[in-house]
From TrEMBL:
Protein family: Belongs to the class-I pyridoxal-phosphate-dependent aminotransferase family.
Listed name of the protein: aspartate transaminase
Pfam families: Aminotran_1_2
Keywords from the UniProt entry: Aminotransferase, Pyridoxal phosphate, Transferase
Listed GO CC annotations: cytoplasm
Native source organism of the sequence: Lichenibacterium minor
Record GO terms (molecular function): kynurenine-oxoglutarate transaminase activity; L-aspartate:2-oxoglutarate aminotransferase activity; pyridoxal phosphate binding
Needed cofactors: pyridoxal 5'-phosphate
Enzyme class: transferase
Domain Aminotransferase class I/classII large per the UniProt entry, residue ranges: 26-375
Subunit relationships: Homodimer.
Assigned EC number: 2.6.1.1
Lineage: Bacteria, Pseudomonadati, Pseudomonadota, Alphaproteobacteria, Hyphomicrobiales
Length: 382
């Protein structure tokens, strides 16, 4: 057995979801919306099954979707792209896995920012990479030149960077991106940018793509996700955007992973990406309202809510309550209070923060209110 996978424990997400089912809990641990997603986009996918092509689509993706991605990023993020800069993948995780297999050789170093999406570390290790960590701490989850200097070395090949950041909800601003870009340029490193939450930002904290910074166009791989853009997380339609020299190798890795992605879903995503800006504004407004509803309810119940400017998640710092074991807290919360959350220490490989827990707010009002009702007095019963 490959030890990278054989030695992995059961993920905290699976554990908390199992406990949520076992205790009949309100599940604010897993990150998916309650609703089924936009009706017209789902109907476009259904129509494409009956009226469209159901055999292998092109390996790089349907031409109409590749062009739709390029046009969409041109309108929304002012990126000058062509369809040749775009490849369709079976979800963002496949895009990340393929990129790591394509970009690094055994012994190359990869800079990771923790807390981080749980797939990053095993994917890096499976590709033969050596992880080097930049550790972020609450409440601001920021990094300095000194933090980067400790992580970068002459062996750095790739920087895997997530903004907006899951699980913290941080949307990194231009100053942080420029800081990271300087190090990428100085060390001739490729920035593999997980930007799946790019549309899910609040309080006018607009997403800045790393690719748009001076000197980064030729050394950035941008990864996006239709699942996050449209709240259709089960569709697993992702996008990789890169300059031709990078795309030539990225496409070879993709060819021998999933090869392609269901054509009806690609057609529907192409349709959805053509929607006007008002559609995406309304999506953000609805999620921001849900964020504020849950944040206010948690604060009223004595929890210290950390700011979140993006993603489906907000975090609570339990340190003011004297809690130093976020895993134990979440286990008690689901068993005794009937609400499932996720301990943020699970997103660290080392030097973990152990006082922060994550809640998903991409839920119906009734779901959020039911969770808050169950949390009455929970802060005092820590």
């Amino acid at each position: 057995m490959n030890p990278v996978f054989a030695d992995l424990p059961t993920t905290v997400f699976e554990t908390m979801s199992r406990l949520a089912r076992q205790h009949g809990a309100v599940n604010l641990g897993q990150g998916f919306p309650d609703d089924p997603g936009p009706l017209d986009i789902r109907r476009a996918a259904a129509d494409a099954v009956f009226d469209g092509w159901n055999q292998y689509p092109p390996m790089m993706g349907l031409p109409e979707l590749r062009q739709a991605v390029a046009d969409h990023y041109g309108r929304i993020q002012n990126l000058a792209l062509s369809a040749d800069d775009v490849m369709v993948t079976s979800g963002a995780t496949e895009a990340l896995a393929g990129a790591l297999l394509a970009l690094i050789e055994p012994g190359d170093e990869v800079v990771l920012f923790q807390p981080m999406y749980d797939a990053y570390l095993p994917l890096v290790r499976r590709a033969g990479g050596i992880p080097r960590f930049v550790t972020l701490k609450p409440p601001h989850w920021d990094f300095s030149d000194e933090d980067l200097a400790r992580a970068f070395s002459p062996r750095t090949r790739v920087v895997l960077f997530n903004s907006p950041l899951n699980p913290t909800g941080t949307v990194f601003g231009r100053a942080a991106l420029e800081r990271l870009a300087r190090f990428c340029t100085a060390h001739d490193a490729v920035a593999l940018c997980d930007e799946v939450w790019e549309h899910v930002t609040f309080d006018r904290a607009g997403h800045i793509p790393m690719m748009s910074l001076p000197g980064m166009r030729e050394r950035t791989v941008k990864v996006g996700s239709a699942g996050k853009i449209f709240g259709l997380t089960g569709w697993k339609v992702g996008f990789t955007v890169a300059a031709p020299a990078l795309m030539r190798v990225l496409s070879k890795a993709h060819q021998f992973l999933t090869f392609t992605t269901p054509p009806n879903l690609q057609s529907a995503v192409a349709y959805g990406l053509g929607k006007p800006a008002e559609h995406f504004d309304a999506m953000r407004s609805g999620l921001q309202r849900s964020r504020d509803r849950l944040a206010a309810g948690l604060a009223e119940r004595g929890f210290a809510v950390l700011p979140t400017a993006g993603t489906y998640f907000l975090n609570v710092d339990l340190a003011p309550l004297g809690v130093t074991d976020d895993v134990g807290f979440c286990e008690r919360l689901v068993a005794q209070e009937g609400v499932a959350a996720v301990p943020v220490s699970a997103f660290y490989a080392e030097d973990a923060v152990r006082s922060v827990v994550r809640f998903c707010f991409a839920k119906a009002d009734a779901t959020l209110d039911a969770a808050l009702e169950r949390l009455d007095g929970a802060a005092s019963r820590r």
